[in-house]
Specification:
The protein has 15 helices and 12 strands. By secondary structure, it is of the alpha+beta class. Among the domains are: 104 residues, no CATH class; 212 residues. Strands 3, 4, 5, 6, 7, 8, 9, 10, 11 and 12 form a 10-stranded mixed sheet that branches. It is globular and about 80 Å long.
Length: 453
């Protein structure tokens, strides 16, 4: 990886001109500088790790999860046998790195991620749309972090079926993902105790307008669905069994206009809600089993039932995205890497989480660019192979001359476009293989969480 300002000489103050060449066409340098200016404590003097350099470091932490922070610093700050970012060719100490990350804070990374996501939304809105509606998936997951007292108190731990609590603290994450390009367009992080539906309700106004949201059964909340309708957007949600509704009339085969009664308790809490909601129900028989969906798209001519079912099948793309982020990018494994983050305190955990999503979006953006230039379906390009190509190209582009970079970037896109996987239709049943240990469970003391306002 490289830095702008090679002509300035190898000085510690030159770190403020640093950029990662292989990523610079996606994450603009001016965004990084603006994010660094929003740091918790902006750098007031020349340091080995100024704000812009530390911002790039946090992004690189998400792309080199298998490396320690010091090795990531060595990877991005030096070209082996050539030049070093620091005059003494010595990587800054762990203490200096922690201080630099504390100065940056997580607010700067949150701002950079949102700026990047807004750019992606403007750049690829047409490619992410279906019938002039943004096709989005709203879903959540959990991420593990080091088992420290600070992380336990802030994020909390889930319970365990074998008694006590889980081995590691976990954070709740909520993503808004493009169903057609698998880009993460919005992301939020919260303590584990916060449920997905409650979190989605609180951040609903931040979801891009003009969208069709594909929702899992867990999001079948009348208050949440009614709010989506009130803001002028649409939803398509799978129906849980034993949902009481009255079918008013038929719109076609397995297609009805329905009415559902809003529970009194919910209307007491939210008196602005109506007594009834009128929706559209679509049914489909798959492998001998009936599936039903509720949607706010009432026009059966403009939005045929069979197309809605086909679009809902894209909801699985968010699960593939979580797999790419957690299993392949972060190298998450039960034994080798049980946690996704390196940080021992919540602020740096959040900072690392934002950098991880930025890194994921960069890889997906390169995939979209390669697919567009070489006429390949974006979702058929391997995420794992693309990540490897980016890691291989980074040192080559760092050592290259400026006029060589456009050619090297074109070669990178061509190599990414060649990383296609076979087109296949897969069935994804929710089945797991569980290996129970024969050893006794190690019970850890459960910390009493502080009461927060």
């Amino acid at each position: 990886m490289s830095f702008i300002g090679k002509s300035f000489g190898i000085l510690e103050s030159a770190a403020k001109y640093f950029t990662i060449e292989v990523l610079a066409s996606i994450v603009k340098q001016k965004w990084v500088e603006e994010a660094a200016a929003r740091a918790t404590r902006p750098t007031e003097r020349d340091r080995k790790l100024p704000g812009p350099f530390t911002t790039w470091l946090v992004i690189a932490l998400g792309l080199y999860r298998s490396l320690s922070i010091q090795n990531v610093l060595r990877r991005i700050g030096s070209v082996f046998g050539s030049v070093s970012q620091w005059s003494d060719a010595e990587v800054p100490s762990s203490k200096a790195t922690v201080q630099a990350r504390n100065r940056l804070g997580f607010g700067a990374m949150r701002w950079l991620l949102r700026r990047f996501q807004d750019w992606l939304l403007d750049e690829h809105r047409e490619a992410m749309s279906w019938r002039k509606l943004l096709l989005l998936i709203v879903d959540g997951s959990t991420l593990k972090m080091p088992d420290t007292e600070a992380n336990q108190r802030f994020f909390g731990c889930p319970g365990s079926s074998r008694g006590g609590r889980a081995a590691f603290p976990q954070m709740r994450v909520l993503f808004v993902v493009s169903a057609k390009l698998r880009l993460v367009l919005r992301s939020w992080f919260a303590p584990y105790r916060r449920s997905e539906v409650v979190l989605a309700s609180r951040v609903l106004d931040e979801i891009p307008r003009g969208s069709l949201m594909l929702l899992d059964r867990a999001y079948l909340s009348w208050w949440f669905l009614w709010r989506i309708q009130q803001r002028g957007d649409h939803f398509l949600v799978r129906v849980r069994r034993r949902i009481n509704r009255r079918r008013l009339y038929s719109l076609g085969p397995a297609d009805w206009r329905i009415r559902v009664r809003v529970p009194r308790a919910l209307r007491r809490t939210h008196p602005e809600m109506p007594k009834f909601l009128e929706l559209r129900e679509v049914g489909v028989r798959i492998r001998g089993r009936w599936y039903h969906y509720f949607t706010s798209l009432e026009d059966a001519t403009a939005y045929p039932a069979h197309e809605l079912v086909e679009q809902y099948a894209r909801r699985w793309e968010v699960e593939t995205g979580f797999d790419e982020l957690k299993t392949h990018q972060a190298g998450l494994a039960t034994v080798n890497h049980p946690v996704m983050f390196r940080s021992a305190v919540p602020r740096r955990v959040l900072q690392e989480a934002y950098g991880l999503v930025i890194g994921y979006n960069v890889i997906r953006s390169l995939i979209v660019q390669a697919a567009s230039r070489h006429h390949v379906e974006p979702l058929r390009i391997s995420f794992t192979d693309t990540l490897d190509r980016v890691r291989e190209a980074a040192p080559v582009m760092s050592a290259a001359r400026t006029h060589e970079l456009p050619h090297l970037f074109a070669v990178l896109l061509a190599s990414i476009a060649a990383c296609t996987v076979p087109e296949r239709s897969r069935r994804n049943p929710r089945l797991v293989c569980v290996k129970m240990s024969c050893y006794d469970k190690k019970h850890k003391p459960l910390l009493r969480s502080r009461r927060r306002a």
